[in-house]
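Q: Hi! First time doing this. I have a protein sequence and I read that you can turn it into a structure. Is that right? Here it is:
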Amino acid sequence: MSKAYREGRENAAAHRESAPIAEDAQVISSRRPGRSPLPNALVAWGIRLLKAGLSVALLSILLRTIRMEALHQALGEADFRLLIAAFVLMPVNLAFQALRWRTLLLTEVPRISLKRSFGSVIAGMSFGLITPGRVGEIGRVFTIPAPSRTRLAGLHILDKLYFFGAVSLSGPLMLFLMPGFSELIPQSMRIGIGVLVSVLPVLYLSFALSPKPLKGVLVTLQLTFNPKGRILELLRAFEGLRRSHCRRALGLTILQLGVIYTQFYLLSLAFQPVSWLTAAHTYAASLFVKSVLPISLGSLGVGEWAAVSFYTRYGIAETTAFSASLMIFGMNVLLPGMLGLVVLLRLKITPPKLSSIKGWGKAA
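A: Yes, that's right. Below is the predicted 3D structure, encoded as structure tokens:
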């Protein structure tokens, strides 16, 4: 009987491991009995429509300022070879994202493949298109078979911190160095603010290069608040991090940003002469503005407004800034998000909620 029992347990475990991922991704309802989900759904769709409307409004204002005739003329005179070169870099950008995600996943799922990691990234981008600040990208955890999706959610947060931390902590320095920006600051405060914004990238590097500072913060949080349940599980997602993981993730982030800035440079150069440093500086500042103002759908409209505002300070035409910014949005956000729908349909995964992550909805 004991041998038969063990064989039954082994067969059951094998069945669970081979079950489709879609079964793991089914939404676990945490609503109270008798409570209709309709109002929440209406609010969510209302916010999405409002953000979409804001995107349309911002783009409309920019188009009226730039004038359609000038935009048509610029597009007609563009060097399409450079546009194609920028497009070719799109999969390189995605590859660096997938490699960073896989680097972090290896701490929790040792045998995860690059192919699965790549599909997970673009699937998450589909969710991110319709959520504020692209927080819906956390849906990528539903495409990865793992014992704890709460830990995967923690790794996803860390993955996003590597990219948005670099953008957010270098962004103030980019704005400070923008022509004419420092002159808006009172002279008595200019040196102090300059030192402060210069320290922020160093602070990012201190956390990004080694897991010790992050783990120190997490230990302090655990001793202070004594978290349990899902919060404790989330914090434990970083236990497997090593210095090699952090350095590799940082290196891939730097390479990804370099590819993105080069894309923007090529797109701009297709319309008029511009230096790589000018293009990189402009788009770095634009990324920062988009990250702190997630008020439109996929930050569409906000990024174009920022690019036009910053590029004109360098004497670059508004048509160049608008066209380059809109094209890079299509290449790096919209197109991968649409490709991600193929992954979602193949795995039969529906848009998730945080409560559907294994362990997320349980009581602490």
